[in-house]
Design goal:
globular; alpha/beta; 216 residues; 2 domains; Ribulose 1,5 Bisphosphate Carboxylase/Oxygenase; 4-stranded parallel β-sheet
């Protein structure tokens, strides 16, 4: 994959993406072919350190919480805290604003309410929160891990024929996004048994945009 091909796709993505009132995430979607997902050897779980920060752990973070003492102990790490009893009362505008957060975490028991009332809006956008225990030190560790890199895996349940990965924010320089994309693509290609021959298509998208294919 050449840098010029990635930059061309990013330019097309910008041209076809309506402006939003928040900096949208940019995601890379790689789909596979001729890959038997029943074989453990064809499943991978990678930690990829990016050339440039994706902004995920450095922007706005949101916590869904049920315990007041726990939320008080970590509230300085988050831009907003939403309590379990508030979730069912959220209006459409408030739910839409959740898409503007870079990191969403949820105290374990709250995931039931999140899934019930917000799942249909958050899940399609890849914004479902990650469940965490009510442990301040583990929360700090989780946020730090998010800053350092991204997880790339096709080991979800019985395996999936694709990966979708955060590679940055739309307000980053195109060259920075291109380098992050190249790093993820390169690591995924190396993890596949037939490397490039196992890759069907590579696309980029924003949080709320159509997908654009990278020709390579």
């Amino acid at each position: 994959m050449k840098k010029e091909q990635v930059l061309s796709a990013l330019a097309k993505l910008d041209a076809n993406s309506p402006k939003r009132n928040f900096a949208q995430s940019v995601e890379l979607v790689i789909t596979f072919k001729d890959l038997d997902l029943k074989k453990p050897a064809n499943l991978f779980d990678l930690k990829v350190d990016m050339p440039y920060s994706t902004g995920r752990g450095e922007g706005k973070a949101l916590l869904f919480a049920s315990s007041k003492p726990f939320s008080d102990s970590v509230k300085t790490l988050f831009s907003r805290v939403i309590f379990e009893d508030e979730i069912a009362k959220m209006k459409k505008k408030e739910i839409a604003e959740l898409l503007g957060f870079d990191v969403l975490l949820a105290e374990g028991p709250v995931m039931i309410a999140v899934g019930k009332y917000l799942g249909q809006d958050l899940a399609p956008k890849g914004k479902m929160p990650r469940p965490i225990p009510a442990n301040p030190e583990l929360v700090k560790t989780e946020l730090e891990k998010m800053k350092a890199g991204v997880r790339v895996t096709n080991k979800k349940g019985k395996g999936v024929p694709m990966v979708q990965v955060l590679v940055g924010k739309e307000n980053m320089k195109p060259e920075e996004l291109a380098e992050n994309i190249a790093k993820v693509y390169g690591e995924v290609e190396k993890a596949l048994p037939k490397q490039r021959h196992n890759i069907k298509a590579v696309r980029v998208k924003k949080t709320m945009s159509p997908v654009v294919k990278i020709e390579f």
